[in-house]
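Hi R.,

Here's the input for the uracil complex you asked about:
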Amino acid sequence: MERLQKVIAHAGITSRRKAEGLITEGRVRVNGQVIKELGVQVSSKDVVEVDGIPIEQEQHVYYLFYKPRGVISAVTDDKKRKVVLDYFAEVPERVYPVGRLDYDTSGLLLLTNDGELSQTLMHPKHEVDKVYVAKVKGIADKKQLLPLTKGIRIEGRKTAPARFEILSTDQTAQSSIVQLTIHEGRNHQVKNMLKAVGLPVQKLKRENYGPLDLKGLRPGEYRELSKKEVSQLKNSAK
Ligand code: URA
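And here is the predicted structure with uracil in place:
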């Protein structure tokens, strides 16, 4: 469900503000009925007409993208760096990323035009697990990582309990591979959490997002989610 003015704006007829004007002027019908108040929720099954002409509601689409390092999780960049949308030039719908991955982080990024699901997934209360694998400086040990399972203070706010696994350690290189599962999405969260326990991140990749993983994709590739995957994703949001 989405707000009527947003649906009209998304159909490309006009801006959100002007769409509000069309509604209050009584020029919009939903399933044949004039709607004059703002904020009415409509679904893709509702027939929306402006001045008697039905608008084409964009169908929701969902893409799973393997973001390479060195790409911005944005729609545009004023410094002309590569952005994720550069990879979606062939996709007709106006999709945008669900949350962000840092410029130097690779891995699973979802893109969709479903604003509602996007908001749901990004809200920490829905507890969608995200699994990260980090190469860190130093030899990690369990005791060192334990505080992350209870939550630590970062920028004055406690993080939600996380889960970790030490995947390997390399005495020669003095580095370790650590897997961290979190459900929040604060800025640089994994890097900040690992740094706080004395393990600065050298390389970071997101491997899972709720029920989804990167299987079958190489960096820079994407695929559309199946209907089943979309419903699994929706169900993963508590
Ligand atoms: N945490 C980080 O520090 N960086 C990311 O890109 C994602 C999570």
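One thing worth noting: The chain has a mean pLDDT of 93.

Cheers,
M.
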